[in-house]
Amino acid sequence: MEVNNKLIQDIAKLSKLKFEDSAANKMKEDLNKILAFVDKLNEIDTEGVAPLIYMSKEVNVLRADEITEETSQKDALKNAPQKDSDYFKVPTVLKK
Amino acid sequence: MNTSDKYEAVIGLEVHAQLTTKTKAYSSDENIYGATPNTKTCPITLGHPGTLPVSNSKVIEYAVKMGIAVGSQIRERNEYARKNYFYADLPKGYQITQDTTPICNGGFIEIKGEDGKEKQIEITRIHMEEDAGKSIHDLDPFHTLVDLNRAGVPLIEIVSEPEIRSSGEAYQYVLEVRKLVRYIGICDGNMEEGSLRCDANISVRLKGAEKFGIKVEVKNMNSISNVKKAIEYEIERQIELIENGGEVVHETRSFNAANGGTISMRHKEEANDYRFFPEPDLQPVIVTQEYIEKIRKTLTLLPKQLYIKFTNKFGLSDYDSIILIEEKEIALYFLEITKHTKNYKTAANIVNGAIKAHLNEFVKHISEFSISAIRIAELIQLIDDGKVSNSVATSKVFTQMLQSDLSAEEIAKNNNWIQDSDTDSLSEFVKQVIAKYPEKVEEYKSGKKGLIGLFMGEVMKLSRGKADPKLANQLVRAELEK
């Protein structure tokens, strides 16, 4: 798989990021290098091997419907770069 | 022919129901509506690094309940998936949902079609997922405010096949879904608070055409009547567009409750690429047949089952039965009355008549209704015994029962409302009346049958309104026809 400029711009858009041309080029090089490295894995024949999704074979890891987690409003908002007394604040989402 | 008659609408609905669990879907912080912003969260809900979700067993149970209620196939091996998109009210950057392994497939919701016949709308799938937080756009002119209390609240999404053909059918479908989730107790069905939400996929095509038209998704209809309005508007908009030589664009539109129209939100071609992939942080969930059967046994009060019981076992009309099952608590109240009386028809009449009228007048829920079911059964007994007429029972006695703990019979006695069913004393009144109007008797005999009203009125007067009208009528007739 080849990472081209269009793909960089598409991924950037989905992530709400913006790249200038020079930065996009650098990102393209990096991603291509990573993909080339990962491509090595394709040299192994995985025909008939089921994809590995879970690190354990356990199923039905469930919990009872009981409240055991309580985070205070103060703690919840603690790491937010922008906030007011009640809310997280983010740049305006809707364009008017 | 009206131009719009050439077209047919094709509608599929996606209903999101917030589950009334105590805690969130994948974390054990509280699931509650209306709390102070950002007070019902935890590190998992907030999407902090290194946190790991754990599934709430109640969510599986509720999803299975819904599947059983609509007759779905329930999947044995369930997996979760990540739906990736970037938005401020989704702190993890992905929504945990089910992609290729929805917990339920198939089944149907039954509605009355446009032709009045029963119509089954097939369910495509029901899957489990989590809600996002709430973005508030109108409190701060320079920022969007985010409340994450709702983030991680469990949802089931119920997707219908595109088998709905009109706004009226869509209205009924949502009504039926709401009724079901309330009956099985998994969602409070409150559209105004957003605990039940509906998106509609709408397209139009020429009648008889096989191919679907280009569909538009309409969101933000926050009441069932708005679902109807939005669909009506959208069908008309699309037909007009096509009739004027235009083309429908594949897009998402938002319903505007203020003017009843829809406005474009974004074009689908620029839409998100959600890059679904399996959620490795949640182990698969196996739903066994044994488990399904255990849940099935708890579902004894589905509206359909009650309808069959009311029409077959109780001999009630289709109409009476449908009204009785509209609301679960009313149906349960009616069932309670039937434990104490066999006069099902009168019980249904009192519930659908006097009781519902009272609840509507005072904007009350049946849970706030002061007369116990057993006292209503006693009132019915009073009618059955001929001690009070139906109208005295449901107006006068009923009204006093609302404010008193006395039995229906005590109230009727105290107020002197027990009607006279004593044939001897009534016969005496009848004879007096007949003797008083010899000319009228002749007129009656020569065909003026309407005069019976006059004699009845006189008898009622003499008895001071306490004569059993049915019995009095019989006696007057018998005497006149001698």
Walkthrough of the structure:
The complex is a heterodimer of chains A (96) and B (482). By secondary structure, chain A is mostly helical. Chain A is 35% helix and 6% strand. With 482 residues, chain B is of the alpha+beta class. In chain B, the strands form four sheets. In chain B, strands 1, 3, 7, 8, 9, 12, 13, 14, 15 and 16 form a ten-stranded mixed β-sheet that branches. In chain B, β8 and β9 form a beta hairpin. The mean pLDDT of chain B is 92. Chains A and B meet through β1, α3 and β2 of A and β2, α1, β11 and β18 of B.
Care to give the gist of this entry?
Chain A is mainly alpha-helical and 96 residues long.
Task: Give short descriptive properties of this protein.
heterodimer, A: 96 residues, mainly alpha, 3 helices, 2 strands, 35% helix, B: alpha+beta, Arc Repressor Mutant, subunit A
Q: Secondary structure elements and their pairing?
A:
The complex is a heterodimer of chains A (96) and B (482).
Chain A: H1 5-14, H2 21-39, E1 62-63, H3 73-77, E2 88-91
Chain B: E1 7-18, E2 55-56, H1 57-70, E3 73-74, E4 77-78, E5 81-84, E6 94-97, E7 104-105, E8 108-112, E9 118-130, E10 134-136, E11 143-147, E12 154-160, H2 167-183, E13 196-206, E14 216-219, H3 224-243, E15 251-256, E16 261-267, E17 277-278, E18 285-286, H4 289-298, H5 303-313, H6 318-325, H7 328-338, H8 344-361, H9 373-384, H10 390-402, H11 408-414, H12 423-436, H13 438-445, H14 452-462, H15 469-480
Parallel strand pairs in B: 14-15
Antiparallel strand pairs in B: 1-12, 1-13, 3-7, 4-18, 5-6, 5-17, 7-9, 8-9, 9-12, 10-11, 13-14, 15-16
